[in-house]
Specification:
Radius of gyration: 14 Å
CATH topology: Sufe protein. Chain: A
Number of domains: 1
Number of helices: 5
Distance between the termini: 31 Å
CATH class: Alpha Beta
Strand content: 15-25%
């Protein structure tokens, strides 16, 4: 478990302090807002699709360290992925933060996402970690309504 703690420290703290793809995207083909009324996390996810491929993805807004780092890692990992690959990554991530997927047994599949394994120990934080992911799902499925964790 110490490897996961180190990964947590490295990935989550770094992505919170230096979020990747933190910008309003000009020319986005899709954008959706996500809001967590429980803690106030509020992000807009911007996506540029090239056919079935996510050619660019970014986010803008404010929230806790878990939600911001999750959005940052998500945007970093999904550029160049197909919609189907993004769906698979979402499913792995969601199972991980809900405690349904063992991070140590799936390190190769999860990569940096394994850093969020500890979130499952704090049920209220699952919504923080998954907000950007649910918002991206809405964008990929052409649902422009604001995503809420409630």
């Amino acid at each position: 478990m110490s490897l996961l703690r180190e990964l947590y420290q490295e990935v989550i703290l770094d992505h919170n302090k230096n979020p990747r793809n933190f910008r309003v995207m000009e020319g986005a083909t899709k954008h959706v807002e996500g809001y967590n009324p429980l803690c106030g996390d509020h992000y807009t996810i911007f996506v540029k699709m090239d056919g079935d491929v996510i050619s660019d993805v970014s986010f803008q807004g404010a929230g806790c360290a878990i939600s911001k780092s999750s959005a940052s890692v998500m945007t970093s990992l999904l550029k160049g992925k197909t919609k189907e690959e993004a769906e698979q990554m979402f499913n792995h991530f969601h199972k991980l933060v809900k405690g349904e997927l063992n991070a140590e047994e799936n390190l190769e599949t999860l990569g940096k996402l394994a850093a969020f394994a500890g979130v499952s120990e704090f049920p209220a934080r699952v919504k923080c970690a998954s907000l950007a992911w649910h918002t991206l799902q809405a964008a990929l499925h052409d649902d422009a309504q604001t995503v809420s964790t409630e």
